[in-house]
Design brief:
heterodimer, A: about 240 residues, alpha/beta, 5-stranded parallel β-sheet, 12 strands, about 40% helix, B: about 550 residues, alpha+beta, Helix Hairpins, 4 domains, 5-stranded antiparallel β-sheet, 5-stranded mixed β-sheet
């Protein structure tokens, strides 16, 4: 993480990142830093153009500012989420709870608060795109759901349930060890890839989102069960 | 209010509720006092009326009865005078005298007793020999009246209770009047007394009737008075109660609440003034809210506007910093300085934004149970690098039980980190002074952390100033950890948010101690701290 990456070899990009930020200098600086770290990137400074760029560029990850001209970052986030499960990391200038929670609820996977340290941002981007390196043949079941880890799909009695990669990771993490209760900190480390304690609200919001997709009744969850005062575990149902 | 609160301590619940109602309801008090006053007046008037009626009735009856008795006696005397005087013995003559009177008495409702003769031999009724109406208990004639007729006397009367037994032998007692008058029997020449006993049944019934009528009238009157008072006070009290309810709602933050105004009387004018007051309050509060909103909005905007360029500068500086080995020495050093100063700039910005968030009242407490022992260990662990760099040893003294407090763990860690880095900053770099002590303690009411250093200490009066923004004990003193000067101010604000204490102690040359005390339950006022503010090792040298 602390090792500065050398100049990337030709055609050896680690991934493509779309940077959506109204501040041209910041966006350009981001592309410089990302290029140094081995990512290909493209910038977009207007919210209303973000979707066109997204469809055209097909990025592996989106860095999204919340305050954008043309269209609000929250709306952009929802639109991307509507057609793709690509990881979204919000760039926010406000550390206030409400903004963060609204952003996460509209579909973002993670967020960084400005001013962030470039290395911290890169670490988070790596954590989000790293999944693609490790395909493994594995089939799990949790509740009445069947998870095909390699095929990256979740089915209930043959019906496919569409999850974002992060929601999928969260479900797989819980399903692999159904006997274990995961604290929010452990989930942050295993699913988000954080070494240090970060914001546990990330976990809460994503568990809510996951439940709204996989539970029969999200008010009375049976697949992702809350263990009061500890964390979450896979349901026995 | 306070006088009413005293006796209610030891009373049963029902009575206490009654007393509370009495204290709180003007209506109840007014109605009750009016009813009591009316009851007194009505009783006096009623008693007076009854007395008058009774006296009138009895006077009338007495006149009639005495006249009738005199008639009977006169008639008896006439009959005696007409009777032959010598050949009849006194006993039969007595009977002849009494029999017609008894018969007349039976039809006209009075009883008769003939007693005598009057003289030295006595002649009292209980001595026997008295003729009387059958069934009459002769002791109904009071002894006082008999005594009156021990010698010759004119007609006299008195009240008595007439006891008689009817055919079945049932004894009856009824009030009555007894009239006595004397006759002289020609046969033995002695004087006998005739007692006529007239019952007062009718008068008693009349009196009872009048009493009942008066009582009924009095009760109706009282009910009327109570009802009227209740109605009248209700007209006054209802608007007052409405005003109270509206005032309570206003106080609870429902600023749009208003009183209904009807008519132009005093109450309507009170309502109008009340509404004006409410409107003014509402306007002022709205203004303040608007100001506060603008302030928060401004802070939020400034934060966004400053953060974005700072992020760009930060990343640019990072790129330069990473590439500094390729620069000439001056440019390389400049890149290093840029990097370190940017760190400070960033910290300062974060602290400023935090302080302005407190000033705007936008800081929110996310409280949960926090073990201060864990916090102390975590903070000491994260500050170990700084301590090692400064050559300062950190000693942690924690109890083997958890010291819990309901607190926001992020804020508490920030406070403790501030205190520890502050202590490391002020500790000596060598010798015994190169040590700081972090102590944790807790009880069922609170938990505390004290951070002790053995540095230069604080001059008198400085203990209160350390929490001022940008305050520095010695402006000439070099900054080492690059504190912003806002750390302790933010810590104090954080502590106040928890309802806790953050206090400082210090003596020149003896070092300083900062103590954070948090209540076990958020919002419960603190009474004492489980740790002393003045460290134990300092007390001896001071005194």
């Amino acid at each position: 993480m602390t090792q500065p990456a050398g100049p990337p070899a030709e055609n050896a990009w680690k991934g493509r990142i779309l940077v959506v930020d109204d501040d041209a200098s910041l966006a350009e600086m981001l592309t410089i830093v990302l290029r140094q770290e081995g990512f290909d990137s493209r910038m977009c400074t207007r919210g209303d153009l973000a979707m066109d760029e997204f469809r055209d560029y097909k990025p592996d990850l989106v860095l999204l500012d919340l305050m954008l001209p043309g269209k609000d970052g929250i709306d952009v986030c929802k639109e991307i989420r509507a057609e793709s499960g690509v990881p979204i990391v919000m760039l926010t200038a406000k550390g206030d709870t409400v903004d963060v929670v609204v952003g996460l609820e509209s579909g973002a996977d993670d967020y960084v608060v400005k001013p962030f340290k470039p290395k911290e941002l890169v670490a988070r981007i790596r954590a989000r795109v790293r999944r693609y390196d490790t395909p493994a043949q594995e089939s799990l079941s949790i509740g009445d759901l069947t998870i095909d880890v390699a095929g990256h799909s979740v089915t209930r009695r043959g019906v496919q349930i569409s999850l974002t990669p992060l929601e999928f990771d969260l479900l797989v993490c819980l399903a692999r060890k159904p006997w274990q209760v995961f604290t929010r900190e452990v989930l942050l480390e295993q699913v988000w890839g954080y070494r240090h304690a970060a914001d546990t609200r990330l976990v809460n919001v994503h568990v809510q989102r996951l439940r709204s997709k996989v539970e029969h009744d999200p008010e009375n969850p049976e697949i992702v069960v809350t263990v009061r005062g500890v964390g979450y575990k896979a349901g026995n149902a | 209010m306070s006088s009413g609160a005293l006796p209610s301590r030891s009373l049963p619940a029902g009575l206490r509720r009654g007393l509370t109602f009495w204290r709180r309801s003007i209506q109840a008090r007014v109605v009750a006092s009016t009813v009591v006053l009316s009851a007194v007046v009505v009783s006096i008037v009623g008693w007076f009326l009854l007395q008058q009626t009774r006296e009138g009735l009895l006077d009338h009856r007495v006149t009639a009865v005495v006249a009738e008795a005199n008639n009977e006696t006169t008639e008896a005397r006439t009959r005696l005078v007409a009777a032959p005087g010598t050949d009849i013995d006194s006993a039969s003559q007595q009977r002849d005298l009494v029999e017609p009177i008894i018969q007349r008495g039976a039809t006209r409702g009075f009883s008769v007793v003939l007693a005598g003769p009057v003289g030295d031999t006595g002649g009292r009724i209980e001595d026997g020999g008295a003729e009387s109406t059958p069934g009459l208990d002769t002791s109904s004639v009071p002894a006082s009246l008999e005594a009156h007729f021990d010698e010759l006397a004119p007609t006299a009367w008195t009240y008595t209770r007439i006891r008689s037994a009817d055919a079945e032998g049932v004894t009856r007692v009824q009030p009555g009047i007894v009239v006595g008058s004397q006759v002289k029997l020609p046969s033995d020449g002695a004087t006998y007394t005739l007692y006529y006993l007239f019952p007062l049944d009718e008068e008693q019934e009349t009196l009872a009737l009048v009493t009942r009528a008066l009582l009924t009238a009095a009760i109706l009157l009282l009910v009327l008075v109570a009802g009227m008072t209740w109605l009248v006070t209700r007209q006054v009290v209802t608007p007052i109660r409405m005003a109270r309810r509206v005032a309570e709602r206003l106080a609870a933050g429902q600023l749009q609440e208003r009183l209904q105004v009807s008519g132009e009387d005093d109450l309507a004018r009170l309502a109008t003034s009340f509404n004006q007051m409410a409107s003014n309050l509402q306007r002022q509060i709205r203004q303040l809210e608007e100001l506060s909103r603008v302030q928060r909005r401004f802070v939020s905007d400034v934060s966004h506007e400053l953060r974005t360029p700072l992020t760009t500068v930060r990343m640019a500086s990072d790129v330069l910093h990473d590439a500094r080995h390729g620069f000439d020495p001056a440019a390389g050093r400049a890149a290093e300085l840029l990097q370190t100063e940017l760190d400070r700039f960033e910290m300062l910005l974060v602290d400023l934004l935090e302080i302005s968030r407190f000033d705007a009242g936008a800081a929110v407490l996310e409280a949960e149970d926090v073990n201060l022992v864990d916090v102390a260990h975590r903070v000491v662990e994260t500050t170990r690098a700084l301590a090692d760099q400064r050559g300062v040893g950190v000693v942690v003294r924690t109890p083997d039980y958890p010291c819990l407090a309901e607190a926001d763990v992020r804020r508490v860690e920030r406070i403790v980190r501030n205190l520890v880095t502050n202590a490391i900053d002020h500790a000596e770099t060598s010798g015994r002074g190169a040590e700081i002590v972090v102590q944790v303690a807790g009880d069922e009411h609170s938990a505390a952390i004290a951070v002790r250093d053995y540095g230069v200490g604080l001059a008198p009066g400085e203990a209160a100033m350390v929490f001022n923004r940008f305050w520095r004990a010695d402006p000439a003193r070099a900054r080492t950890s690059g504190g912003t000067g806002l750390g302790l101010s933010i810590s104090l604000e954080d502590t106040h948010l928890h309802g806790g204490w953050l206090q400082a102690w210090g003596r020149p040359g003896q070092g300083a101690q900062f103590r954070l005390t948090l209540p076990r339950r958020a919002g419960v006022p603190l009474r004492q701290s489980p740790l002393p503010l003045v460290p134990v090792d300092a007390e001896e040298t001071v005194s």
